[in-house]
């Protein structure tokens, strides 16, 4: 094992080190070091991880010890009964809770399904570039690697006001200890066997000079073999599928699905052991699959699902195999694509195994804007009557989506984004006026534009006294450069949330949160929720939930914008 060692303290700027392979993380108490595992050549890296709070709240509600933070918080809400005459009976209630945050940031391994895709390669490149503080030339001059577009790395949260009444903000990730994405150990699977230098070049996402600076490191990373069930992704992906462990003598076999679960479980265990990781998170950023039929007796309960995998039922998708394998390994599983991986049997399995899951479909460009704009219009009392969303893209995602069944998965996930907005306003949307917005979604594959997806949207709304308003938007969504920071945030927050436990004051023991991490909704188009609960799509509401959760954990109250200092005499 050849170690190419570089010792750097936590606060030393990370110098650009010529790496030859995948960075791997080894532990030693509160110190981490990168080491080398064949076939990868790597560097050693020492850093201290003791958490020193940068934001110190002077309150007796939150108590820090060396290892944990315990906070008291009284949750306040109201039960509302809508009466037959249209009035509302509102009964406020309170529930006191204790929250506990484990302050030790663990060594985190990330396994991507679809590692060799546009998102997969851009994710790995972004981590290597930031870890080494790479500088590269574009036609605009010299650029330094950054994490723009990531809420956890590049946004702030309001803490309060200064002595002059002006707002004061702190970095999102400074409130509580969160894993630094530079420290992720990354691995994963792909049905295509290209090394990541070749895959990065084919992806056509990154600036040429940056690719040149990364290619030596990227070429050492080769995805693990994956499973390919041709019925689930577009037929046009077939030529990519040269790295599949269910291909025997050139033939694809879709039987032996339970052995596929076991192989993936083994891959996860091997990755964790080889890198001495505390935690692994698996995230699907592979091709969009067709929807699986939800069939009673097949995938409707955890027990039926496991039985159906053992019987090689045809409605078991590769993504469901990955989800089941991860859950059985107690490894959180995040779905970044639109398909219904989380059939009821998977959700029940996650509940039974107390494992976190989150999905579906990254909310990166057009839909993110829609989840702001539709909410803004309806909250302003304007009545959108139609939204026409068109886009064209030329990457492999678009190629796969040019097939009708895979497009249908995307259409469903994109369409649901205005549902809760409509449901929030009975003045504008009711039985008499109609409870729907005409919502049309078109996706076209246009090879020439590559990863620079072009989204064009028209919002047509009714104004007062028969007037109309038309908003047209032309948005060039750099697909993978928008999606990669979301992947980082989903991983950072999943890891963070898995260190939070809670109890009601009357309970004896702390418990994990509910298995479906709906706090992740901010980053997802069709947020998975606890069965029986409606998804919240409005981006600002989602962000408010995140900010306030971090605030209450450090002993602050949820943020309001009452601004009495200014408004009251
Ligand atoms: N802005 C965005 O990029 C964005 C936004 C929302 C959702 N998504 C979704 O993210 C996914 C990935 O997007 P992308 O642009 O990276 O696509 P991509 O086609 O470039 O990459 C997908 C990768 O998955 C691999 N793959 C397919 N089936 C696999 C399997 N069973 N196991 C392992 N690997 C498999 C492919 O070989 C490919 O390398 C797509 O489903 C896309 O719809 C992307």
From TrEMBL:
EC number: 5.5.1.4
InterPro entries: Myo-inos-1-P_Synthase (IPR002587), Myo-inos-1-P_Synthase_GAPDH (IPR013021), NAD(P)-bd_dom_sf (IPR036291)
Known cofactor(s): NAD(+)
Annotated compartments: Cytoplasm
Pathway(s) per entry: Polyol metabolism; myo-inositol biosynthesis; myo-inositol from D-glucose 6-phosphate: step 1/2
Reaction catalysed by this enzyme: D-glucose 6-phosphate = 1D-myo-inositol 3-phosphate
Myo-inositol-1-phosphate synthase GAPDH-like domain boundaries: 365-480
Residues making up the signal peptide according to the UniProt record: none
Keywords per UniProt: Cytoplasm, Inositol biosynthesis, Isomerase, Lipid biosynthesis, Lipid metabolism, NAD, Phospholipid biosynthesis, Phospholipid metabolism
GO molecular function: inositol-3-phosphate synthase activity
PANTHER family reported for this sequence: MYO-INOSITOL-1 PHOSPHATE SYNTHASE
Entry similarity comment: Belongs to the myo-inositol 1-phosphate synthase family.
The name this protein goes by in its record: Inositol-3-phosphate synthase
Organism lineage string: Eukaryota, Fungi, Dikarya, Ascomycota, Saccharomycotina
